[in-house]
Amino acid sequence: MGMVSEDAINQFSALMEEVEEPLKKTFQNVHQGYPRETYTRFLKAREWNVQKAHKMLVDSLNWRVQNDIDNILTKPILPADLYRAVRDSQLIGVSGYSREGLPVYAIGVGQSSLDKASVHCYVQSHIQMNEYRDRVILPTQTKKHGRHISTCIKVLDMTGLKLSALSQIKLLTIISTIDDLNYPEKTSTYYVVNVPYVFSACWKVVKPLLQERTRKKVQVLSGSGRDELLQIMDYASLPHFCRKESGSSRHSGHGTENCYSLDHPFHQELYSYMKRQASVVEPVEPIKQGSFHVDLPEPAPEGAIIAETIESEMHKYHKQNAVDSLDKLKITDD
Asked: Which residues form the CRAL-TRIO domain (predicted)?
C-alpha cells in the first residue's frame, strides 16, 4: 500500500496544481502548511480513489468559497445572549488534551436540545468550532509538540438519550454531512460513554451500516469511561461527565469545569478570538447580529439510511417499553 499511496498522493498533487486561484487560496486555510497530509485525508475518505478524492476536495473548496467559510471566524453569533443559548443547547466543548497532544472534544449527545436558536445558528457554531480547531488549536499543538497534529478525540455522552432526540436527527444529519464532505478524517477516535439501553439497541443495528474505517474509530466504554480515558489523558483533561464512576449532569460543576458552558475557558477564548477578528475586518461598521447562513447539504444516501434506522429502532424500543409497562400494570392490578 505504501507505493500505491505515494503514487496516489503525487497524482492528487498534480491535479490540484490545475485548480483556479480562488480555490488555491482557500486550500491554504484547509491544509495549514501540510497539503500532503490533507491529500491523505481526502484519499482515505474515498478509499484511495484519486479521481473521487480530487472531486471531493474541489467540491469542498467551492463550498468554502461560495459560503465565505474563510471569514466565518470573523462573524461571532450576536448578541451574546443568543450565543449563550446556543451553548446551553448544543452541548460541546474542549475539556483538554490527550497525552499525545490531541484536543479532547466533549459532546453531550443525549442532553443537547438544539431548540434555542435557528438551524443556521447551530450550523454556524459547529463550523466555527471546526475552523478554530483546524486553524488555531491544531497548529498550536503542532508547534508545541514539534510534530504534525491534525486530529482530535471526541467523547460522546449519551446520558438522557430518549425518544425526543428524534426531533434533532435532521439537524444532526446536516452537521454530520458537512463534516463528512468538508472535514474528513479529523477525528481519530470516538469514545461513547454513559450508554443507556436505547443506544445499545440502536448501535447493534447501525454499526453494520457504517464504513469499516468509521466502525474502527468507535469505542463504546462502560459507565463514564473514566478508567479507560485516564489511560490516554490526565484527570484534568477528562470531560466533567467522566469524572465520576457513572452518571452525568448537564450542568455539573462550575462554569469553568463544565466544558459545555460559555463560561468555560475554551468557549471564552473562542468567542473572544472571533470578536477580535471581527473588529479587525470591520473596525468601522457595527458587527451584524443574527446568524451567518451557510448552504445546507443534502445528506448522503448512507446518512439518510442511518438516520431512518435510528428513528425506527428508537420507536420500536419505546413502543416495546410502553407494552412492557402496561403488562406490569395489569399484573399489579390482578
From this structure: 79-239
CATH number for the domain running over 73-278: 3.40.525.10
3-state DSSP of the chain: CHHHHHHHHHHHHHHHCCCCHHHHHHHHHHHCCCHHHHHHHHHHHCCCCHHHHHHHHHHHHHHHHHCCHHHHHHCCCECHHHHHHHHHHCCEEEEEEECCCCEEEEEECCCCCCCCCCHHHHHHHHHHHHHHHHHHHHHHHHHHHCCCCCCEEEEEECCCCCHHHHHHHHHHHHHHHHHHHHCCCCEEEEEEECCCHHHHHHHHHHHHHCCHHHHCCEEECCCCCHHHHCCCECHHHCCHHHCCCCCCCCCCCCCCCCCCCCCCHHHHHHHHHHHHHHHHHCCCCCCCCECCCCCCCCCCHHHHHHHHHHHHHHHHHHHHHHHHHHHHHHHHHC
Taking 70 as the pLDDT cut, the residues of the chain under it are 1-4, 163-167, 245-256, 282-291, 301-304, 307, 311, 313-315, 317-334
Q: Which pLDDT value is given to residue 334?
A: 54
Fold equal for 2-66 and 73-278: no
pLDDT at residue 294, as a whole number: 85
pTM over 0.85: yes
